[in-house]
Backbone:
């Protein structure tokens, strides 16, 4: 896991969770994808940047997921998920991944 940027894990969780839920037509299965990626990302955020950063990014991950729903009503489902995944990736990169 050390070689995979947390930004990619977080964005993949949001995108993959939505894609899984949509294509399987089983929202709980998408939720599992979302949650597993969130746990992996949180573990790495904590390991690389500490508890405070992990807590803030974990909160942002939940807000991104929740915020994608009302945003989808305005711009569409895929654009919404892509927007929040991009925002989450950027936040994770700025807070954690750009550190060497």
Residues:
């Amino acid at each position: 896991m050390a070689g995979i940027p947390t930004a990619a894990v977080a964005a993949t969780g949001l995108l993959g969770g939505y894609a899984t839920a949509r294509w399987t037509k089983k929202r709980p299965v998408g939720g599992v994808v979302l949650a597993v990626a969130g746990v992996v990302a949180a573990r790495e955020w904590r390991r690389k940047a500490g508890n405070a950063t992990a807590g803030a990014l974990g909160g942002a991950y939940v807000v991104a997921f929740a915020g994608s729903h009302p945003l989808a009503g305005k711009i569409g489902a895929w654009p919404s998920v892509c927007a929040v995944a991009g925002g989450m990736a950027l936040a994770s990169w700025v807070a954690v991944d750009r550190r060497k």
